[in-house]
Amino acid sequence: MNKRKTVFIEGPITPSFIANSIEKHQTKTTIGAHDIFLGQVRADKIDGKIVQAIDYSAYTEMAENKFHEIREATFSKYDLTCMHIYHSLGKVKAGEICLFVFVSAPHRKVAFEALEFLVEEIKKEVPVFGKEVFEDETHVWKVNKV
Question: Is pLDDT above 90 for 138?
Fold first, then answer.
């Protein structure tokens, strides 16, 4: 069983964090492919108001356990070299990254398939919640779309 990793990051996931994560994998010479998913906050228009940010919250312990289960299931199903999942907590502005999923494998097809499986499972199973925050500071609970 792989070591448990903390998934949550306070605030947005920065481009430098993502680049650093990629750079660290240059020494792993059995990797032939990486695939990355970046979830970005959209400035959706809802009832005539534009979303300025999403304020993320979670049942942290429950969510971390679910992330771990999904991670282990993905490693069991796909021949991956490594996997990283990071999700924001707190306020993330429109245009900023809130979810960073990074998989590495010896071959590209496995990386593509594993990443799709992983992101779909995260969206379906993990208890993370978002309030869409508007310019006037009013908010509504975000409804996930498929």
Answer: no
